[in-house]
Amino acid sequence: MDSKNKEIKHNIMLKKIILSIIAFILGITLALLTDSFFRHIIQTLFVATTFHKINFVGKDFHFFSSALYYNLFGLAMIVVALDGYSTNIKQLLQKISMSILIFAVAILGISTVEAHLKIIECTACDEGYRNLHWNDINYEIIVLVSLFLAIIPNSIRLVKRSNFSLFTAFNLFKITKN
Length: 178
Description:
Layout: H1 2-49, E1 54-57, H2 67-84, H3 89-121, E2 130-133, H4 139-162, H5 168-177
Parallel strand pairs: 1-2
């Protein structure tokens, strides 16, 4: 009975590892495909939330974001995938929808505050209008903080469900070693 229980735990762990690898690859792919989309959204929010008091000047020159950007997207997808593991489709869609909603609200809020701060800090602006170069905005920080805020509920559920303790990692190591 004990060996059967170990085998079941081993199979579940193997499934979670494979799911995590797939989720990480999907997260990096999603980051690659949506990088310019998020830059455009943030630029639009900067202009719209300040009532066109921000003007972008120069050339919008951007190849790729940093490795941290892509890796954190992958990590966020792992957290969402593991949180959705062993739930029904309705609960999974609710969790994903909540994360997307938090992500969108966070991007909106952070971009709005950052745009207004850019106008406030300008002392040489002509009647409150400010010209910004396309790369004066740290797009990665805005997206990554929003992503972090979006996965907080998923992370809390994962920690609660796993009964995480300091010895969990050591016990897991003992199970896989035997």
